[in-house]
Amino acid sequence: MIRFELPTEEALLLKDTAERFVADHYALEQRAKALSAAPGDVPRHWAEMAELGWLVACVPEDAGGLGLTPAQIVPMMEVLGAGLILEPVGAVSLGCAAMLARALSPDDVAERLAPVLAGEAIEVVVAGRDGAPIAARREGGNLVLSGASPAVIGAAAATAFWVVAELDGSRMLVRIPAEDAAVTPCRLVDGQAAAQVVLDDVTVPADEAISGCHAALDFGADLALVGVLAETSGVIDALHKATLDYVKMREQFGRPIGRFQVVQHKMADMFIACEEARSMVLLAAEAMESKDAAFRGKLVSAARVKISDAARAVLRDAVQLHGGMGVSDELAVGHLVKRLLVLTQTGGNRAAHLKRFAKAA
Amino acid sequence: MTDLLNAPEDSAFRAEIRAFVEAELDPATRAKVSRGSPLAREDFLRWHQSMHRKGWVAPGWPAEHGGPGWSARQRLIADEEMFRLHTPPLPGFGLKMIGPILIRFGSREQQQRFLPRILSCEDWWCQGFSEPGAGSDLASLRTRAVRTDGGWLVSGSKTWTTYAQYANWIFCLVRTDPEVKKQQGISMMLIDMAAPGVSRRPIRLMDGTDEVNEIFLDNVFVPDDLVVGEINMGWTYAKALLEHERLGIGGIGRSKHLLARVREMAEATGLGDDPEISARLAAFEIDIMAIEATTLRLLAAAEAGRTLGAETSLLKVRGTEVQQGLTELMLDIAGPAALPESAGDCADALFANVAYQFLNWRKLSIYGGSNEIQRSILAGQVLGL
Ligand SMILES: Cc1cc2nc3c(=O)[nH]c(=O)nc-3n(C[C@H](O)[C@H](O)[C@H](O)COP(=O)(O)OP(=O)(O)OC[C@H]3O[C@@H](n4cnc5c(N)ncnc54)[C@H](O)[C@@H]3O)c2cc1C
C-alpha cells in the first residue's frame, strides 16, 4: 500500500506557489519586520495564504477542500518549514480544518468551515499538556471545562478554539469562542506567535459538544504531526544545504574546511539524516491514507522518533561547522535552528512515540 | 553527585569555601545564576569584589602576585563548590589569561600597572585573537602593526570578542612581520579600548543576547611599553596562555552544577523516577565522574613532576560534550514548556532559560579551539598520527 508515489501536478503547483511566496515575502529582513508585530495580530499574510489554497489543501472535496492526500502536501509543508513562515498554516489547516471535516456532521461542515477555509477566521485545536484532553464535568444541561495549554501555535489570533475535552473517559470536541478563555499571547523562541490558553470553568450547553469523533481526533492529531514532520524535514534539508555551501566556501589553513575529512564525514552523516527524514515523512504521510488507525499511528510514531533524532544530529553539526557564524543571528542557520527546536519539542515526546510504536502490532 | 575529592582535609577546605559564599553572595544574583539567566555587569562585579576582599580571585596566580596559594586540588574543590552554590563566574580574560601572561612574560612596569587592577577588577579585559578570516587557523591573522615613532600603528578587525562591551582593555595578537612564516611574525599588544581609532559593534547571537562583538582598529597607536615581551614572540605567548589552566578546562564544577539543576527539573515535573530520564541522569553522572577521575589522575602525575602535554585537550572535548548533552536532556524534560520566549508572559519560571541555554551553549564546542581542532591536537601531538 505504501507506494512512494511521486508528487502529482497539483502537489507540485502548491509547492511552487510556496517557493515563490517564501522568495517574495520571507527574506530575513522582511521576516524581522513581521516579528515586530504584536503576537496577537492577525498574521500578516493570512488572507493571501488562504487564497493560494494552502488552508484547504488537505480538506476533503465534499467539505470544500482540494482533497489532496497527506503525501501530496508534504512538498509544500517542507518548503513552508524551510521558509520559516510565521503563519500557523499547519495548525489551522491540518490540525484543525482537516480534522473538523471528519468530525462534524455533513450538514455542519460547510457552514462551520467556510470562514476558516476562506481565511476570515482563525480556529485551532486546544488540548492539554502533551495532547491529553482537557477535563470536563457535567452541571445540569451544561458542560464545564477547566484546564490549560501552555503554548498553542496560532492561538494568539484565533477567534475560536476547538477544545479536546474528556467526560467520563470519553473524548469530545467543544467549540469555545476565544473571548471565553483566558488567552495570553506570546512568541516562541523561533518567533512564531502562540498563546497560553487557560479555561477556567468555561460553561457550554452539553448538546453543543461533538461526541463520537474519536477517529477524527486521532486522525487529526496524527495529520498535524505529519505536517510538523514535513516542516522538520524541510528545515533539516535547508540546514544541510546551507552548511554544505558554507564548508565549500569557508577557508581555514589555506583550503575550504570541506576538504578536511572530519568535516566531510559530518556532511555525509547530515546527508544520510536528510534522506532518512524525507523517507520517513513520506512513509508516515502515505500511511495516513490507511483506515487502520493503529497502523497509521505506528508509522507516524516511527517517523517522529527517526526525524527528531535526525533533527538533533543535524542541528548540532550545522551550528558546529559554521563555527562562530553558526551561533550568530546573522545567517539563516540560527533561525533554522530555532525553528527546528520548536518543531522537535511539540507533538509528544520521543519516549511516548517509542512506546506507541512498540505497542502497535 | 559523588565527590571524588573527599579526604578529610578536602572537607575542611570545602566547608571554608561554603561558609564564605553563604555569607557573601547576594540571593538575587544567586537565583539568576542557578536558573542560568544572563548576568549583568554589576552581577559579575559585585561578586568579584567580595572575592577580591577575601583574596580568592586569582587561584592560579603565585602568592607574590596576589594568589591565595591554593594547590591544584584545592582549586578544583573551590571551583566545584562555587558552582554548587551558584556564584557568578569571575570575568576570566584578566584573571585566567592576560594576568598569567604578564606574570610570565610581561615587563616589571606592566605587572605593576595592570596586575593589581585585574585583581580588583578596576580593569575588565577582553581577548582580541580571532578575526573574520582567522578562527581555527588563528596564525593566519591579518590585523597589522606598522612601526612608528615610539610605538606601533595597528589596523584591522577582531571578532567574537566576548564582553567587549564591559571591557576597557583588550589584548590583541597582531602581525608585526608579514615577511616571515606566519606564526613567527605575530606580537601581543595591550590596547586601551578608549584609544582613538578603536570602535565596537555588537554581534547579535541566535539566543537573542549580544555577549560578543566585532572590534575595529583604525590606526590605533600602541606605545612600545604596551607590547608584551618581545616583538614577534606573540604566538609563543598565546600558546603558553592556552596551555594555562589546562586542568580546569574540563569544567567539572560547571557540569556538576548543571546536572544538579537538571535533576531538580526532573523531580519538579514528576519525571524523577521515569526510567528513561533517571537512566540518562545516571549516565551523565558517570560521564562526569570519568572526566573528574581523569583530571585527578593527570593532576597526580603533574604533582609527581610529569609535565602535562596536549593530552589535556581530552578534558575540553569530553567536558563540553557532557555539558551540551545535559542541555539536551533539559529540553527533553521541559517538552513544549521550553518553547515560549523567556521574556514573554507565557514562560514557565522552571524552564524559562532552557531553550536559551541550549542555544547559547552550542558555543562550548566551538570556542577556545573547536572540538575538531582539539581532536586533531590529540591525534597529532599525542598519538603521533
Ligand atoms: C560565543 C563565542 C565567544 C568567543 N569569544 C572569543 C573571544 O573572547 N576572543 C577571541 O579571540 N575569540 C573568541 N571566540 C572565537 C572562537 O575562538 C572561534 O569561533 C573559534 O576559534 C572557531 O573559529 P571560527 O568561528 O572562525 O570557525 P572556523 O575556524 O571557520 O571553523 C568552522 C568549522 O570548521 C572546523 N574546522 C576548521 N578547521 C578544521 C580542521 N583543520 N580540521 C577539522 N575541522 C576544522 C571547525 O572545527 C568548525 O567546526 C568566540 C567564539 C564564540 C562562538
UniProtKB/TrEMBL annotation, chain A:
Gene Ontology MF terms: acyl-CoA dehydrogenase activity; flavin adenine dinucleotide binding
Cofactor(s) this protein requires: FAD
Domain of life: Bacteria
Family assignment from sequence similarity: Belongs to the acyl-CoA dehydrogenase family.
The keyword Repeat is assigned to this record: no
Domain Acyl-CoA dehydrogenase/oxidase N-terminal span(s) in chain numbering: 8-120
InterPro entries, per the entry: Acyl-CoA_Oxase/DH_mid-dom_sf, AcylCo_DH-like_C, AcylCo_DH/oxidase_C, AcylCoA_DH/ox_N, AcylCoA_DH/ox_N_sf, AcylCoA_DH/oxidase_NM_dom_sf
The protein's name: Acyl-CoA dehydrogenase family protein
UniProt KW keywords: FAD, Flavoprotein, Oxidoreductase
Automatic annotation (TrEMBL), chain B:
Acyl-CoA dehydrogenase/oxidase C-terminal domain ranges (all copies): 232-382
An example molecular function term from Gene Ontology annotations: oxidoreductase activity, acting on the CH-CH group of donors
Top-level taxonomic group: Bacteria
Cofactors required: FAD
Residues in Acyl-CoA dehydrogenase/oxidase N-terminal domain copies: 8-121
Domain Acyl-CoA oxidase/dehydrogenase middle: 126-220
Gene3D superfamilies cross-referenced by the UniProt entry: Acyl-CoA dehydrogenase/oxidase, N-terminal domain, Butyryl-CoA Dehydrogenase, subunit A, domain 2, Butyryl-CoA Dehydrogenase, subunit A, domain 3
InterPro entries named in the record: Acyl-CoA_Oxase/DH_mid-dom, Acyl-CoA_Oxase/DH_mid-dom_sf, AcylCo_DH-like_C, AcylCo_DH/oxidase_C, AcylCoA_DH/ox_N, AcylCoA_DH/ox_N_sf, AcylCoA_DH/oxidase_NM_dom_sf, Mycobact_Acyl-CoA_DH
GO-annotated cellular components: plasma membrane
Keyword list, A-Z: FAD, Flavoprotein, Oxidoreductase
Family named by the database record: Belongs to the acyl-CoA dehydrogenase family.
Protein name per UniProt: Acyl-CoA dehydrogenase family protein
